[in-house]
User: What shape does this take?
Amino acid sequence: MTAAPPFSAPHYALGDLVLEPVGDAAATIAERLAGLDPWARTGRTAADFRTYLTAEPPGTRHFALRIDGALVGFLALRHPFMRGPYVETIAIFPEAQRRGLARRIVEWIAVEGGPAAQNLWLCVTEWNAVARATYAALGFHEVAPLPDVAAVGVTEIFLRKVLRPPQG
Assistant: This one.
């Protein structure tokens, strides 16, 4: 029997944190993202986010994050990327922050990616000191600045977490 590809199940349970298809939560997630930094500063509207949330290009998964049925965030994950997954968007809503959810998600991605996943990638907005510190504490290293990628005049920092040594 062949194992299912990484990140292909419709739902994942990480203890009380459930990752599930966005579905009917798209409008709510879009409104929340449009009002939260760093996204609010880019000028992206809720309509822009609804379009983004409902389009799932090949190799990308969008998850609503829930605890006890309550919507607590959003995750967009691209795989494969450069020998591992790329966290396209991770948003933990303010009422659910500082509960270790980002750590649980990063640990789950590392396991779910399987033995071929050697790296985990993401970007963080340059001025977002809290997120940069969080990702550093999770083992990410800053690789390169990427100016004008998400928005003109804004620099994103490309981050890498090495999961496993390179394989031949």
User: Anything to note?
Assistant: The chain has a mean pLDDT of 94.
